[in-house]
Structure formats: structure tokens, C-alpha cells
Amino acid sequence: MCATVAVGHAQKLNGAGATFPDPIYSKWFSEYSASHPGVQINYQPIGSGGGIRQVTAGTVDFGAADVPMTDEQLAASKVKIQHIPTVLGAVVPIFNLQGVSDLRIGPDVLADIYLGKISKWDDARIAKDNPGVKLPSQDIFVVHRSDGSGTTYIFTDYLSKVSKDWAGGPGRGAAPSWPRGIGAKNSEGVAGFVRQSPGSIGYVELIFALQNKIPFAYVKTAGGTWVKASIEGVSEAAASVKNMPADYRVSITNAPGNAYPISSFTWLLIPNPAKDPANGKVLVDFLKWILQHENEVNSLYYAPLPASVAQKVSATINTLK
Length: 321
Known about the structure:
By secondary structure, the chain is an alpha/beta fold. 36% of the residues lie in helices and 18% in strands. The strands form two sheets. It has an eight-stranded mixed beta sheet with strand order 2-1-3-10-4-7-5-6. It has a two-stranded antiparallel ribbon with strand order 8-9. The radius of gyration is 20 Å and the shape is elongated.
């Protein structure tokens, strides 16, 4: 058990960043504050790009991102940043197609939809993967994130691994140059656009699809099996990392076997040392508290850290200043 922080006056921590883990972070921040009187944690889900900008500028106590910071970003930061993985999640292709609730979208097909090479729902390549499904002769309305987004990074990291044309074109990134489509702000924005727009396709974290009751597609694993996103599939992707680096910056998209292929860790970005020692002490205690509450993440469709990773993270937290 970690020691409870004694707070002589109100401690207010501010953080900003990823929308991908916002549902579980909101739950955790609320629960932690309730059990630690005097502590308030304010978190703004403004996207991973915004979280990285704010934490490196020193304007927040912590950031959050689903995209690991680059060597260049780390070098340019005003403060030293430690990545702390918290949970794992799945990004799912969501769609709005009248009369269709089950749909298979292959890796190359998904890339070519976003590249603009496939523009109709009844395209022969989509039909080939969906025998017996009545596909409308309807234009595909592409939706993507408009902000710098870790969810976008995970999605484009996956597309870059399964499509040479994507890798050689837009490539992986939190804010790529999109060949087509309309941008929406944050995961809620993408989910809302797709829910309201017949013929549309987008991508969000699994819980946003479930909460908004939007259908999401089966995708093909690296092993060639059609799967829907699941906690088990995400956990299998995490298990593919045999040697976790000390800075925890890893990619687990398109993991081998039948792991869910659009999976990722998400990270809290912790200034080390903290800009405010009192807030830093609370933040370290909160990180230890998180590790004791990993069993709560399944209820919001995230996967907990593998035991070996949690053990390593615990040792890293003890080194934070």
C-alpha cells in the first residue's frame, strides 16, 4: 500500500492531453480526490498534441499522450519528461451504414478508404470481404481528427505498417496531411459526426464507440483472423513486448498472432523533477495509487498493464523526484 499524502492545504494539480484514456482518467481523478481530502486534479482532454505542448512548456503539472514523445520533443522540452504507461486500449473503425451492423474492413481496404482509392461502400474489395452483406451504392464519407491526436497516431501507425502507400504518403503522425475527409475535434467530435452522418467512417477509442452505440468493424489480425476489438485482444498485443525499454516508448500496433491490431499503451507525461514539490509529491502518490486500481479498467473497456510492466513501472515511480 502507498502512504496517504498529508495535505495541510488544498493541493490543485492541472493536467492536459489525450482523449483516448479520458474516461478512465476521469474516474481515477474523481476517486483519488474523494479518498484524499484537499486534493483536486483537473484534467483537460485536449488531445495528445496539446498535452505534449503544455507539459514541455511547463504550464501543467503533468501531460497525457497516446503517442510517445519523439527524441526531438524530449530534447527541446524545458523539463525532463518521464513516460509512465497507465492502461492499454483499442482504436476501432466506426461506421454509419443503414441496414449494416456487422462489417469487415481489411487492412489494405481501410488504408485505401482514407487514401481516397476506395470511395463507394459497394466497392468490389469491400464486397469481397463481406459476402452476403447488402452494401449500398453510397459515397464513403471519411471523418478524421482535426487536432493533434494520439488516437490518430495509433491509427496511422497501424496504417503505415499494413500499407506501403500509406507509409510512403501521409505516414504515421498525430496530425498527418489527410488525403481526404472532414476533421472533427477530439474523440467525441469524431463519434458525433459519424453517428449523425449516413455513409460515414471514422476511428475512435473503443469506449467512445460503445458509449455512443456506434457500430465498429471487424479488422484482420497480423495472423489473418477477423476480430472485433476486445480487452483480451489488446492484452495479447501488450504481451508481444518482450523487452520493455526504460522509457516505455513502444508501439504494439499490428502485433503478431491474433492480437487486436490497432492497440496501444497510453502514457502520463511526468516532469522529473516536478515544478512544484508539493504537487509532485501528490502526483507520485497518485501514480502509486493507480497501480493498485488497475483492476478497475476493464469496466471501461481498457486493458490493465501486464504484471511485468506494472512491476517495472512501480520501480520507475520510486525514482521520480
